[in-house]
Amino acid sequence: MPSMTFRFTTECELTFEGRSYEEAYLKFKDLCQSQKPLANPPQLKVYPPEDSTIYFEVDEQNQFSQMDMMKGDFKQDILQNLPDNWIRRIQSQPFH
């Protein structure tokens, strides 16, 4: 199953899975736009990042790419920031 991992400058890391890379990205986008806590147990609160720099990797590629500011578009945020070999891999997967 495709997955994407996002890391913020606070060293918080979240992995989303979906039927496609775009779906995993959209789950992350929805979370950031909601501005609600990601987790809220008694002594812990984790929120989406306030800093606009986000690092992400595709399927544990062991190389994070940088997204300077989330534009809200899979092609602009993900595809334009990946190495060519990963772009070909993602484009070979169905989006829906």
Overall description:
With 96 residues, the protein is an alpha+beta fold. Helix content is 27%, strand content 20%. It is globular and about 45 Å long. The two termini are 13 Å apart.
Provide a quick synopsis of the model.
27% of the residues lie in helices and 20% in strands. The chain has 96 residues and is α+β, with helices and mostly antiparallel strands.
Secondary-structure map with pairings?
Elements: E1 3-8, E2 13-17, H1 21-34, E3 54-58, E4 65-67, H2 74-77, H3 84-91
Antiparallel strand pairs: 1-2, 1-3, 3-4
Notable traits:
96 residues; alpha+beta; 4-stranded antiparallel sheet; 3 helices; 27% helix
Largest sheet: 4 strands, antiparallel
**Approximately how much beta-strand content do the residues carry?**
15-25%
Q: Determine the fraction of residues in helical runs and give it as a percent range.
A: 25-40%
- Rg of Cα set: 13 Å
Gap between N and C termini: 13 Å
Q: Uncertain regions: pLDDT < 50 for 5+ in a row?
A: none
Q: Roughly what is the average pLDDT, rounded to an integer?
A: 78
> Total strand count, please?
4
Task: Strand order, main sheet: write it out.
Answer: 2-1-3-4
Order of helices and strands: EEHEEHH
Instruction: Tell me the number of helical segments per DSSP (H or I, 4 or more residues long).
Output: 3
Q: Helix/strand-derived class?
A: alpha+beta
Shape: globular
